[in-house]
Amino acid sequence: MDPSATVMSNHTLNATGGAGQWDVSDKAKLCRFLCYGSEGDAYTAKDEGRISTKNAGALLSLLQEGRGAEVVEEIKRFAQDGRAVSPSPALFALALCSQHSEVKTRQAAFKALKDVCRDPAHLFSFIQNKKQLKEGMKCGIWGRALRKAVSDWYVEQDAMTLAAAVTRCKQREGWSHQDLLRLSHTKPANEATALVCKYIMKGWKEVQAAYSEKENSEEVIKVLSYLEVVEKVKHSCDETEVVNLIEEHKLEKEQLLTDHLKSKQVWRALLKEMPLHSVLRFLGKMTANKIIEPGSPVTQAVCERIQCEATLRKAKIHPFSLLLSSENYKRGHGYQGKTKWEADSSILKAIDSAFYKSFTNVEAVGKRFVVAADVSTSLSSIVPGTSISTAVAAAAVTMIFARTEADVDVLAYSEGALVPCSLSADMTLAQVTAELVKIPGGTTDCTLPIRWASENAKQTDVFVILTNNPLWAFAASPAEALKNHRRKTGAESKLVMCGLTSVGNAIANTEDRGILTVCGFDLGALTVIQNLAQDLI
């Protein structure tokens, strides 16, 4: 049985067999929390509010009911399967489970540590969560179970993987590897891992002294050579040497000094192996610093990487990520600081090409969708926290569903007017945007798409309704329209109301598990929609 089935299984059926009203169970609230850090029915794009026990009531209730092992399994699933908008809620939840009074829950949490904390940043965040949860309590956090779990995190990794990880991310949130090794009393199981631990605790000079006269194994020699390179680059002021070390040993930006990053040659060396996500993030900075220049070989190589289908597939770049990158780069300046640049036309063309190629990276959920765009206003507003107009955002969302799902109806609507839109696979983003805004605007009636589906007997799994208007201002209730649709068609339909310009105001709390609100829009919003469609939240 699919483990997620328990999340959405206890709805009450109406006379026609459809779902009339779905109660929001503690399990559903837990899954919402793990997905986007709140148990409520609203996801706010780019919301980085502090996670605490105040927004984890259902998690606490499940623990009190003795369902801690079940909670830990859900934490692992969300962390491993890419279901979460951010890793922060899962790390907080795991820390909470690791401090629960029930022994089995604590044991399950510590056992899951390696699966949930996949890099040092996650591990530091987990420890900091534990520290904050213990504040005000007389006991410390470093009991035998935590010491063993942290120790295992270090000693059960391949030594070279560990060496790379600890030199890329040395400290975070007030914790360092030195702190964790000291407090966990880590005892390495093999010589190569012992070498990495000694390097963390004592530094490179003591490692050199300890291993220079020894007969070392092949693995130890490999790790020693790698750490020697990391140390050499840290102390080098020779641009040519730094470039050679980067290229020969595939060093990353995080392993260099800030002064190294003032060099164009260093950036060009980093670019050769830089992950595509990072390339897209630093396009503006690299253009401002003349690393990317019109017609240069470097610019040509960057363009080829951006639009390479194999690279896009390997990096799992989402179309919406590329749209954000394009609009941010086109803007010509950062949100913070004084960095300015003039966007290179060839880079913009490459991102545009990659946008269409990347649709193959979106996994279909296999549901029947109705995606409706509100054209009651000009759709010329900007989605908060982005440079994307609401018209373009709405067009991109409809394209993502239309190109990846087999059964999608796209609608444009306003007061008293609704037009089905025909989108072909070869349409550009500009053409889709024009298709959506071709009908005259009026006031908003978000019930129209649902009523259209009812009148046309459309069996719909998920309604995605995109609006430019405040989500609290509707005269007619989308929730009531959805319930009527369920009764009429017998379909177990869900509804996602997306307020593209909203910054945190949801539609009235319906206590209906099949209804969620999205305030603003970002890549996380698409994750939320897919999770709801698949009964995962």
User: In the residues, how many domains can be counted?
Assistant: 3
> How many β-strand stretches?
11
Q: In order across it, which strands form the biggest sheet?
A: 3-11-10-9-6-7-8
Strand content: 5-15%
Number of helical segments?
26
Give average pLDDT, whole number: 88
The profile of the biggest β sheet is: 7 strands, mixed
Taking Cα atoms only, what radius of gyration do you get, to the nearest Å? 26 Å
User: Which consecutive residue ranges, at least 5 long each, have pLDDT under 50?
Assistant: 1-6, 8-21
Could you tell me how far the N terminus lies from the C terminus, measured between alpha carbons in angstroms? 17 Å
Shape: flat
Q: What structural class results from the helix and strand content? A: alpha/beta
* Approximate helicity band: 40-55%
